[in-house]
Amino acid sequence: MTVHILFKEGLKLALEPLTRFESNLITNFKGLKKMIEKIQSPSLIGMIDAVAMQLADETPDDYFSMLPELSHFHLIDGDGQSDAHLSLDDGVQDWREHLKSLHSHGYEGICTLEIMGSAYYQDPQTALMNSLIKLKEFRI
């Protein structure tokens, strides 16, 4: 399947920067922008992973200032030192500010909780429910 076919069918591919622990190719918004510009397809758009963003010392505002379109946001917390994808408020990220930024930019894409790690293996449902409760309590 080529990107041309995706465009013809109206499908979009979201390209995600990864952490420096996961990849050496695209680890920040500048690399993401460069790749999107190089491929030059309306079927390829960017997305944000909050942990990769945090480790690259970036903010959602950085992405919105450099990219014309974003389709997906991995809303997670992180410890600022590893690629741990933590439940909301289990790390040091200001995820509330991230959501405010998305709102202020009129973001209408998808947000998903990408919670993973050995701390959650025994009881992943509680980690997910705790994050959902925090999201319900949060008001912009």
Quick recap:
This protein has 140 residues and is α/β, with parallel strands linked by helices.
Placed side by side, the strands forming the largest sheet appear as: 1-2-3-4
What's the helix count? 6
Summarize model confidence as the mean pLDDT. Answer: 92
Q: What is the H/E order?
A: HEHEHHEHEH
Shape: globular
Amino-to-carboxy terminus distance: 41 Å
SS class: alpha/beta
Properties at a glance:
140 residues, alpha/beta, 4-stranded parallel β-sheet, 4 strands
Structural write-up:
This protein has 140 residues and is α/β, with parallel strands linked by helices. The protein is 39% helix and 14% strand. Strands 1-2-3-4 form a 4-stranded parallel beta sheet. The protein starts with a helix and ends with a helix.
Outline the secondary-structure elements.
Blueprint: H1 3-9, E1 13-15, H2 29-39, E2 44-49, H3 50-55, H4 60-66, E3 70-75, H5 95-104, E4 110-113, H6 124-137
Parallel strand pairs: 1-2, 2-3, 3-4
